[in-house]
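User: Hey, my collaborator sent me this sequence without any context and asked if I could get a structure. I don't really work with proteins. Can you help?
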Amino acid sequence: MTGPHPSVAATRTAVREALDGVELGSRVWVALSGGPDSLALAAALAFVGRKAGYLTGAIIVDHGMQQGSAEIAREAAAQARLAGLVTVFVERAEVGRLGGPEAAARDARYAAIEARVESEGGQTPHVLLGHTMDDQAETVLLALARGSGARALAGMPVRRGMYVRPFLGLRRGDTVAACEAQGLTPWHDPTNQPGGGPRRSELRGVVMPALVDVLGPGVVSGLARSAALLQADADELERQARTAMRASASQVREEEWRCDMLAVLPDAIRTRMLKMIAEQRGAGPLGAVHVGELDRIVTSFKGQGPVSLPGGYEATREYGRLIIRHPLERVQRSDENGPLA
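Assistant: No problem. I've predicted the 3D structure and written it out in structure-token form, which is a compact way to encode the shape of the chain:
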């Protein structure tokens, strides 16, 4: 008796290991686009879920941004059922404009998935995402081109909240082969092809093949391995930054931080702490430029004025303290206490 195709076995092993420790009866969903990665993931989940006793299903999000998107979603649902998943939902998402088309579509997709997961309930729900090692390598290169810090260069985590990425150790070719071996017909998104599509499509179709030609096939696994190493480093630095925040919090008001206390911290801790401080106040998400301006207020203050932060917030230095507030807060205090000095 022969076993499953090697690629099929690899996808099942990846899902089994990713869900190790998840309790019997837990709800596990796959976010399904209909492409080879998520379709191979759906088939692997169906197999593992039957063995492990999970309540499994697929959530398909129709963004309505491509011609024939409803038909694509229906075909993805049919393929999910062919893969062995009985519970399949197609959600229609309303895509806004904030952050550009890609970011808006991503936000709408996650909102639709989370709404369905919440409405269905169940024990400790998990949502599996089909990102592969190739996706991870592309993410690292995009972050590198933007000049991002260690957290962005760390790529996508295996786990974040209820989301799990079992395939970060598998190549895109593995998922294509797994679909073929199981008689599944994935949808191939035309925007993933180079030439007029998103920047990631150009990276996928032009840059990555060129890198492989020059540096060899190990470049993809090398980038993914670097991301995993940076993930551990970024996690530890953020842990230390949170510890420093807790140690300092008792000595300051909620919106004020002593600059002399911040300035003596190591750069890697201080900059992360500044990002956390601002985002906890409501500003954000902060980019490297914003964090750099905050750091200059703390470490090299020369009387510069307020630093504008996302969300309408601003940061100032007053009497040796870093203060982050929204201008409306200043107006409110003026109304309550008289004009502010």
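In plain terms: Residues 331-337 have pLDDT under 50 and may be disordered. You can pass these tokens on to your collaborator as they are.
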